[in-house]
């Protein structure tokens, strides 16, 4: 049994290495398609092989042997494609933990962050409409890449000039919509309302940035976008629904009492300001 398992690991890993050419500039394996290895062919070896690969991947991470990690993570995901946790955990290593070791090189950080992003997108193709993968993609653009100006600039190029906050907002809105299909009512309410609020927060942050730049028209548009999303939150996830946990009710009350009134005041001030359409 052990010999057959070792042979399976060696054959599949060796084939994967042959299929993944190395980038001359970076010496990092390129991405392989998820269908490279069919888990069905492994039969009863599937779980055992996944355990071996997890152990090897963690050992590589601990000793900072990052070269083959993307390929190993992809092979693990091939064996466990239906698990969102597999995709998210390994994407976190690619986009957060490994780049943290390259603090002096934002360019090197970006290359790993991009791999984490691509890995999540593969996970989404394997699990269409997964709330947690959708939200993780939003967090990647809302938090991770905005830790350094170079990362944000590279992300804008990657997005063909689009503001990363808009990209994040759209992922959060998709997560909120997907949450409506969750079987547990508490999860449905929590995930749905939370990510719609975070989408609104992206617009609020864009408005604040526009004000710092003196662009009142952009600030007005973003504040209106935030207000629209918070109003949708109250319609789609009302505070008076049955069985709403108290923490959710408290957060929703804050939306009604504080955030919506504040947005209305900001919008009114911008609408009343002379020359609001100019920078």
Question: Any descriptors?
Answer:
single chain; mainly alpha; 70% helix; 279 residues; disordered N terminus
Any overview of this molecule?
It is flat and about 65 Å long. α5 packs across α7 (149-158) and α8 (164-179) runs antiparallel to α9 (185-212). It has helices spanning 2-19, 45-62, 69-79, 84-97, 106-126, 131-142, 149-158, 164-179, 185-212, 216-236, 246-272. It contains eleven helices and no strands. The chain starts with a helix and ends in a 7-residue tail after the last helix. Helix content is 70%, strand content 0%. 35% of the residues are buried. It has 279 residues and is an all-alpha fold.
Helical residue percent? over 70%
Number of helices: 11
The assigned structural class equals mainly alpha
Question: How is the main sheet built?
Answer: none
Give the gist of this structure.
The protein is mainly α.
What's the layout of helices and strands?
Elements: H1 2-19, H2 45-62, H3 69-79, H4 84-97, H5 106-126, H6 131-142, H7 149-158, H8 164-179, H9 185-212, H10 216-236, H11 246-272
Helix pairs in contact: 2-3, 3-4, 4-5, 4-6, 5-6, 5-7, 6-8, 8-9, 9-10, 10-11
